[in-house]
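Quick one: co-fold with adenosine-5'-diphosphate.
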Amino acid sequence: MGIIHILSDTLAGQVAAGEVVERPASVLKELVENSIDAGATAIRTEIRRGGIALLKVSDDGNGMSREDAQLAFQRHATSKIACTEDLFRITHMGFRGEALHSIASVAQVKLTTRQANDVVGTELRVSGGDMHEPIDAGCAPGTTVETAQLFFNTPARRKFLKSEETEAGQIEHQLKLHALAFPGIRFTFVRDGQTVFDVPATTDMRQRIADFEGRELAEKLMRIRPVNAAGIHISGFLLPLSEARRNRSRQYIFLNSRPIDDKFAARAIRDGYGGFPTGLHPALYLFIEMEPALVDVNVHPAKKEVRFRRPADLAAALIEAISGTLTAHTKAETPSPSPVVPPDSALRDSPNTEEGSIPSPHTAPRLRILQPMPRQKELSLPVADTVVTDRCPSASAPSAHHDNKLPRGFRLLGILKGEYAIFENAEGLALLSPRAAMERIIFEQLLAAQKGPIAAQRLLTPVLIDPDIREIGTAHKLLPLFEKAGFHIIPFGRSTLRVEAIPAFLNIGQTEDFLHELLHFFTAGGNILHRNRSPYEPFASQLAKQYAAREDIAQLLRTPEVLLSRLFACEIPYCTAGGKPTIIPFSLQEIARKFQTT
Ligand code: ADP
Ligand code: MG
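Sure, here it is.
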């Protein structure tokens, strides 16, 4: 007897199943994709015990004839590809013709199906790859696929499953992704006899998001200004910074209706924001549509990796869509003579209001009456004629360029513990951290370097610094960044640096000390700058942080109003570049709730 056996069809199916069917959620994905391809308008999923005991997907789609139903379980049986050229024009979800075959080889499957015009439907059972004779079934038009005892004949796979709880959670997440990608389909999910969700079909994406995330969050959605370029279409919604997360769990990105988890797209999105606080990931629901020929999706059947054929076009489109949206929303909220939105604004009762009515993209709703002030003009002095002085006017001191008025509707109530300023407005209380506020203000002043040169002030006597031998390399690498930020630092001999000018808006008392600290941080912080495509931002963020850390709180709190105005002149006033809050609101509702008066 030969050593090499031809794999039995069942065994081949089990091998293939290893790729297609990793766990209950991947079975679910395949079944739901088939339902979507069949033109379903309602898809109902029922599971028991994490989908292992039972996983049942019913749809009201086209259904199958009896012959097609039998064929559907054949390996590479698919109604979706006729010739190889079709492979490049795939618009369907599934096209490998492998899923049903694979699933049926590792579970007990019962399929019932009927086409609308047929008098009688078909019931077909396939268990561990063995197909039974089809029988008549009286069923509604559409298809139901029921898989029971998943992995009953592959105990090794079964052992790899996580708890029923985890598997059920994966299924729910997978279903949510499908539901977000196809708002026009009603999705119902029943788990162990309990309805987890039942979201009606809608043409309004905002409604579908609200069905999952709640009305409160949906009100904060900013519709992305659609971009259509180079065969790429971008649409969707952004959420304000306050909804950003430390991981990408709030990033829903779909490519031609498939969820993708793609680092390249994620990076382009950050760039669209003109940078994003390090450590945070923007929250969004983003839909990319592009010519299927421009992308390889099914690189791996179960993975969400994609390969873009024209990545630069995609990046450009994403950046345009996101930055355009943010600009539009910032403009829409630029202060007008009627700034104060009544506490219970119309927003709450009109779910379909367009985003123009959302006052601030960066704001949590309870903060929405805080109106950013128009951007103040920075002093811009060319280096050459800058005042020759060792110290510049304090960045924190009130300057002629600020009006000393508070942002509209604010009143200073006092100072808490010499540490925080307390303000009130129509919405309630707000606590301001002077240090954090300063950090944000300085950060944004440094970012201005991306638009034009930053004004510098020449030092009366240049400062010489001798970095540690380990730090000199870092120092040299940082020179272009320092230059951009308004410093003039010149290598002086092999291991000395000569600081001739510093940014005009900084009041660095001990320049030498300050720069030493910065070099130390970037040397110890390893490749933080190299890992970033635009290293200037993390650089500016650290500079601002360190600068703010040296600020004299008492001095800053002498003019809290100035600080608040300057803060609200910022693009993103509510947190530092590192994501720490600058101002913490306490709404009247919140206070009333604490007093148990509501
Ligand atoms: P693929 O989706 O890659 O074509 P599958 O194994 O998932 O392969 O399905 C095989 C075939 O069975 C499909 O091409 C389709 O014709 C048919 N089919 C599967 N599920 C359904 C369904 N829910 N409704 C109608 N037809 C279906
Ligand atoms: Mg399929």
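If it helps, Residues 350 and 483 are 50 Å apart (CA to CA).
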